[in-house]
Amino acid sequence: MIAGNIFRWIGSLFTDFLFLPLEWIRNQVATQELGWWISNAVNWGFLVVLLILFAYWMKESKRFLDEGTEDRA
Fold first, then answer.
1. Which DSSP letter does residue 55 get?
2. What share of the chain is helix, strand, coil (3-state, %, to 5)?
3. Torsion of CA 25, 28, 32, 36, to 10 degrees
4. SS3 assignment, position 69
5. Residue-wise DSSP of 8-19
6. Which helix (DSSP H) or strand (DSSP E) does residue 73 occupy?
7. Burial class, 38, CB count within 10 angstroms (exposed 0-12 / middle 13-18 / buried 19+)
8. Which of 13, 41, 64, 68 has the fewest beta carbons under 10 Å from its own?
9. Which residues contact 29 (CB under 8 A, 6 or more apart)?
């Protein structure tokens, strides 16, 4: 029963709080031309964060490779 309550709480957190800005974009702005730009700005923001994290990961991977500590058992 406790596990079921945890999953209900997580579902409530996302649907009641975290997705509210996206619901606003979908309901209020979707009929206007501005809604297209806002929706795509969210996607581009996620892509920029992903590219920054990927570049950091590659930089750290190169550093470990240069030090010779990668895949060391």
1. H
2. 85, 0, 15
3. 10
4. coil
5. HHHHHHIIIIIT
6. none
7. middle
8. 68
9. 35, 38
Rg (C-alpha) for the chain, rounded Å, is: 20
- Residue 25 and residue 16 in contact, taking contact as beta carbons nearer than 8 Å: no
Scanning the structure block, which residue is given the tokens 């990668």?
70
In the predicted structure, residue 73 carries a pLDDT above the cut 60: no
Distant-in-sequence, close-in-space partners of 64: CB < 8 Å, separation ≥ 6 = 70
Give 17-65 pLDDT, tens digit per residue: 888 887 877 776 656 666 677 778 888 999 999 999 999 999 999 998 8
- Cα–Cα dist 29/38, whole Å: 8
- Overall residue count recorded for the chain in this entry: 73
Tokens of 53: 């994290």
